[in-house]
Every structure is written in structure tokens, then in C-alpha cells.
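Q: Predict the assembly, please.
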Amino acid sequence: MSGLAYALRKIIQDRSALLGLILVGLVVLAAIFAPLISTHPDAVWDMNPKLRLLPPSSNWLLGTDRMGADIYSRVIYGARITLMIAVIAVGASMLVGVPIGLIAGWRGSWLGEILMRVSDVFLAVPQIVLAIAIAQTLGPSIENVILALSITYWPWFTRLVYAEVKALKNETFIEAAIALGVAPWRIVLLHVLPNVASPIIVRASIGMGFTILTAASLGFLGLGAPPPAPEWGRMIAESREFLPQSWWYALAPGVAIFIVVMGFNLLGDGLRDILDPRIRRSHDR
Amino acid sequence: MRILTLIAKRLAWFVPTAAGLIAIVFFISRVIPSDPVALLAGETATKAQIAALRAKLGLDRPLLVQLFDYYRNLLHGDLGTSLFTTRPVADDLFARLPATFELTLVAMIIAVLVGIPLGVISALRRNTALDHALRIMTVAGLAMASFWLALILQLVFAMDLGWLPLQGRITGFPPKAITGFMLIDAVLSGRLDRLGNALAHLCLPALTLAIPALATVVRFTRAGVLDTLQKPFVTYQTAIGIPRAVVVWKYVLRNALTSTITQIGLLFGILLAGAVVIETVFQWPGIGAYAYEAIVQSDYAGVMGFTVYAGGVFMVVNLIVDLVHELIDPRGGRA
Amino acid sequence: MTGEALLEVQDLKISFSTERGIARVLDGVNLTMRPGAIMGLVGESGSGKTTLARAILGILPSNASYDGGSVRFAGQDILAMDPTAFDRDIKGRRIAFVPQDPYGSFNPLFRIGDQIMELMKWKSPIRDANTGSLGALLTHYPRKRRQADREAALAMLAEVQIPQPERAFKKLPEEFSGGQRQRLLIAMAMMTKPDLIIADEPTTALDVTIQAQILKLLKRLAKDRNVSVLMTTHDMGTAYEICDDITVMYAGQEVETAPIGPFFANPQHPYTARLLDSLPKPGAEIREIGGEIPSLLKAPSGCRFHPRCHQATVECSAARPGITGSEHVVRCFHPLRQAAEVRS
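A: Predicted assembly structure:
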């Protein structure tokens, strides 16, 4: 685990990566301890028409929404939904995308070609477009948002792993392993995979930010978690009809998205510098 | 010759990709639980009437047959008829193309014209206060949800200050449609008031799209310049006394732009393929808003047509990126 | 100009701040160049020879700092000069440069002719009001001068034996071999009719077979035009081939300077002698110099070579030796007078 300790020490040395880690950490803590942190845990889902659209005050830190629920508490609980969607979607994309990339990159030939063509198809339109289509087809729910995001994000991992594996195949130590007659699955799992782990981690961190933004967009368009779930994108959408009077309504969830996405982006950039100095290659063209 | 080969290669790549894309969206859209035919036929329609309509629309046949029909029609430029606007999808898309194009172009021009110089300056003044400020802005620009940014801009500039219109493309009568580009039409018909009005409407959506694009351009330009400044030819040119400004803005920048161009192309493609969310927020009558409506209303033909369009746009943009690369980097051996 | 030095470096001190401390890369270097001579600046890597070359050109990296001394070029202290004026009037015009890496020194995206004409636009020997810097991108290149410059450049390419100069102008760097690129770089250095060319290891990156050709070319052109050349090299053979004078550097200081004849016949500094001994000779064993090149972060006191020197005495570690000799200058308390006998 010295690799992890090394990465952690490097992150702490790099100011912006540290900021990223702190921001992500705060959001994770908020999600875990939501019942403790939120001031009105009971008023997250309740309807209190009498308390509708109150401006921020010492009691309602970020004001109340159209149902009279406490926006601060809703935003805190929203972190749970957001992180859950992003973690599962990115994790599933990784589980699908990485093996496909490994197979395509290692085997090459017609199989690799077909796999890469299939992933190209998914990358031929913007992710948000496919995600909207899928989410709409399946109906608005958290599970479907996760599914839509996973279906559209895996090709990014496939492409990344494919390129890395192809480059690795020409490395001396891999050629040596092949020449020694080591079983292919052993080479891939024991020698190739650990060497592509760093770019995968970097991609995953940046993918978290990206996925959170897309998920929020789906929520905003009404394709995400159905009400009354405290989903940030949907909260912003709801706030539109109460602008400009209830400005606080739109502000808080947007800032929450901003913080978590920025956290993951900074962390991803920092990790890239630390783990993968070679990544510049992909920009070289 | 090389350029022709390039186009041929892109086309060869496009055909199977587009076919695959169509197939995916085709099957996805047919899984839709709601039945648009029943909706279309109206509440009073009998089962027989619905079935008749379904047959008329060709939706009663096996899916694979429908898919291949679609391919065949596509070859004739026929994207089918929208179930809801009842107009040919190709016509709908074509009518909405100028709006999206105008918005995208303005946003990208802002992003490129501002972003490239800022990226270069940021790299030259590495680790100064200016560089740090720009980097913070870059990170922030990429972390905001675009629809939220749109809302905040609307809140401040339209609702609160009242400087700019909230949404739409123009108020009052648009200038006579000549090209479909509102700005150009206004100029062509000599209606400067319409030009001002259209520009005012363009401001907020263009800014919303430009900010993340700008952040990307700054980021990649900065990285590219920093990378290139390390190269021995920069040291050499400095050592033989070529003025710094020439070395940076003529020689270094060209090398640095190779990666930025790819990003600009990608952004352009994403925006042209439909800034779905932003066009919806600003009620901008473009392709993105059309796509959203088509999806929400389960309009098969509309969704399919949009997908084909988006794939086509991506191909064209990629082709243009390749051509620009060819111009910037005359070396033959590139992949 | 006879008798007066073209280039005179006096007690130059340059240090680099690194993560591990301050490295005194040049610590009181002296160097004198006669007009028209080819001077070899010889030393192992880390001896400071490249830093000296770069300091003269004013292209030190940003972590370098100037700690004292002077560099006089044609009587003018160029370190004290306004940098803008130096860049405009001296760099590229009067002091030209041949870099180490012919592969990396051309921008791969621009045609050779464009890169050559960029140099001529700013540094053409035909003088007119081209001042550079501010608004440099927009500065006009007068057509008449451009034409003349182009002719001169093409003639120069022919002289360095680039086939079909007109066509070469339209080619990209990658279309030339390393040797041809080095010829182009030498041509570019000669084109502006400088007084001094600084050549930083000009043949290190090339095949051995091509090295000799390039060196001969450089020597012939320099002698024909009466241009002085300051060439850094780590290779005694290279220096022997084309130099008139040699200065040996060790750990940021010069230790011995002499015309080539006396230098090879009778090296006086123990370091030089052992450096020459370490060259392979038929029938003889290669003798290594014992010990290691000292760290510049914590350089030895006195004569920097003393920890590795067999002749070293107490005084060697106490102070840096002064100069002995006039033609053949050596900094050593115990110069090898009968070195020839010692070596045989």
C-alpha cells in the first residue's frame, strides 16, 4: 500500500490537488452524515405549504423551497443521490469498459477491431444526447439514470485502456513474458492491468465530475430521480418558475454541483500529474 | 491527393458507425413504453383506427424490416416524417440548423479568440498571479453545470438588471429570412434594429456555451505552449536572436495548437450536435431544442433524424479537424 | 583588431538554484579568444562548458543567477549591456550559434526556407531599420532586401553542400538527415556574417563518420571568412581535429589554456594529462582518472581537482592556484614541466 501512501503524500504537497481532495472529502462526509448535519432532516421530504419559499435565515440556512422544505437539508441529502449515481455509473462503466479495452488491445485482430468499432458508435454522438434518449425511454428513476450514464460512458474507458495496452504490448518486459510462454491471462492480469491502473484512476476521477454534470442535466430536464427526491438538477429546474424573487432556491444546488465537480476535476488533474506523467502523449497528436 | 484520401477514409469510417448508431437508437426508441400512435390518433380513436394508422406509418412490421427501410430511405436523403410536426424530419432539421449554427459559431468564436491568447499569456507568465487567476477561472468554468450558469446569467442580466432579453431568438418580427442566420439576414435587409435585437438575444446563450469552451481552450493552449517552450528549437531561435514575440506567437503557438484544435473540434461538434439543455433553457429554436422535444414526445423519426444529424456533424467536424491539422502540421507521417 | 581579444571572459560566476541547493556551475572562469581563432572548450559533462557558452549568448535557464565577473565581446561588456540591445545588435548578428541537437533545433512544422528567412529577416548582414521586439510580428520585410537575403542564403546552402538549395528551401526539417541538418545550422550561423560563432557540441549527435566531415566544413568556412569559433566538446579528438587553441574546464573553472601544438605535446595540468591518458591508444591500457567529478553543490576547496590529484599537496586544498605561463597558461601549483617524459 506504499503506492497509495505515496500518492496521498504527493496530493498533500500539490495545493490544487489537496483542495480537490478536501472538496470531495467534504461532500462525501456530508453524504454520510447527512442526518446529523442537516438542520431539518425531517423537512427534506415533507410538505409545509405554510413555510413555502422563505428566504435564508438562521433557521432556514439556505431558505425553503416551493414545498416548504429546507433547502440546506435537501442539498445535503442530495449529495447522497449524486455520489451514489456517479460512483455506480463510473464503476459500472469501468467494469464494462476496462475488460473490453484489455481484450481489444491485447487480442487486436478482428475481435479488437469489432469491439473498438462498437465503442466508436457510442462516441459518435455527445454523451448527453444518448443519455437523454435512454433515460427517456426507460422512464425517470435513479436506476435508469445510472443505467443511461453507464451505457454511454464505458467506451471512454475502453478507448483509454485499448490505447495503453497497445503501447504496453511493445514494451520489453511484456515481450519477455510472452517469449517465456507465460499464459496470456496471467500477463494481462499481472503485468498489463497494474500498468494501466494509473490512467484508469485518473479517468475515473475526471469521469466522476463529468458524470455528475450529465446526471444533473438529466435531472434538470426531468429525466432523473422523480420528486420528491432531493436531486440537485431537478431542484434547479423547479426553482425556475420562482425566479427572480426566490433567488436562493436556484443558488444552493448549483453551488453544490460546482463544488463537487470542481473537487473531482482538481483531484483528477492532480492525480494525473502524480500518477501518469506520460499522459501528455494523448494530447500530442 | 492526401486530402482526398483523408475524406475517403473518414467516409469509410462514417458509414458503419452511422449504421450502428442508427441501429442502437432505433432499438432503444422502439422500447419506449408509451404508444405514440395511440396519442397521435387521439383519445376517441378506436383500436381499428389505431391499427390502421400504425399500418399506414409502417410501424406494424418487424423491427428489422423497419430498420432496413430506414437505411434505404436514408440513402435517398429521406429521414422520415415527424409524428408530431407531421413534416419531413429533414426539413425540420434543416429549418432549425441556422439557429444552432449561429449560436455555436458565436460561442466558439468568443472561446477561440479570447481563449488562445489567454492560454498563451498564462503559459508565458507561468506561476504568476495572472496565471493562477486564469487557472482558477478555467477550473471553475469547467465545473459549473451549464443550465445553472444559464439560469444565473438570466437571473442577473435579464431578470435583475434587465439589460438583456430572457430567452428566444428575437422579439417582434424577424428580418426577412434569406439565409436563416438572423444576424446576416438583418444586415442583408438593412434592418439594424433587428440586428441589435438579435444580438441581444444571442448574448446570454452564447456566453453560457462560450464559458466552458473558453476554459477548455485556455487549458489546452496553456499546456501546449508550456510543452513547446521546452523544445530545443525554441532555445535555438532565442539563441540566434529571433524576437521573442515572433518565436512565441508564430512558431510556438503553431506547435501548441495541434492539441487545442482537436479540443476545439470536439467542442464544436458537441455544441453543433445540439446544446440540448441550453437551447431548451433559452427556448432557442435550434436542433438541440428540437431533439429534446422529439425525445420527450417519443417522436421516433425525429429522434432518429437527430441522431443521424449528430453523427454526421461529428464526422464533418472530425474531417475539418483533420484538414486543419494537415494545414498546421505538414508532416506526412502522422497517424 | 590584432592583439586585442575578441572575447574575454573574466572571473565569471554563475550558479543554479536547484531543489538540493545552490550549484556553482561557473566559479570564476576566465577565457580569452584571439580574433579568427578556433577555440575548443573541453571538459567532461558537468564541467560548465555549455553553461559558459549559454552565458555568452544570454540564454541561461530561469533558475540561473549571475554572481559576478564579466564577458567582454569586442571591447564591450555584454553582460552589463541592455538586454534588448544585445538581442537586437549582437545576438545572431555578431555572435552566431550552432546548437548541439540538429534534430530538435528546427521547428518540425515550418519549411526550412521559412526558418532560414526568419533569421535573415531579423539578422541579415544587409543593415536597415529592422529593430525587432515590439510589434515584431507585424514588422515589414522589405522586398528588395528579402530578395538579396534569399540569394545569399541559397548561396550559403550551396556552400555547405546542400544539394538543390532552391528545393531544399521548400522542404520540411524531417526530410533532411542529421548531418544535412547540421550543415544547414552551420550555414545559418555563417549567413549573418558574424564575428564569433558559438558551437555547442556541434557533432555529438551525429554518426562518427559524419562528424569529421562536419568539423572540416566548419573549419574551412570559419577560416575562409575569418570567423572565430568557440566550440564546446567533451571529445579531445574533435578538439584536436579543428581547434587552434584549447581551454580545459574542470568543475566550473578553467585549468589550462594553450595552442593546440604545445597542449597535446606537453600538457601541464595534472587533470589534462590524465584526461589525455584516458584516451584509448594502440598497445596501451586505458587509464582511468580515479575518483569522481565533484558535486557542484559542495565543491572542493582550493584547486577543485586536488582530491583526485596525485601531485596534490597541502597548498592545493588551501587556495585556487594562480596563473603560470603566458602562451601556455596553467592553473596549478605543481605543473608537469616534463610531462612528455612522465607520460611515456
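Confidence is low (pLDDT under 50) at residues 339-344 of chain C. The CA atoms of residues 38 and 229 of chain C lie 5 Å apart.
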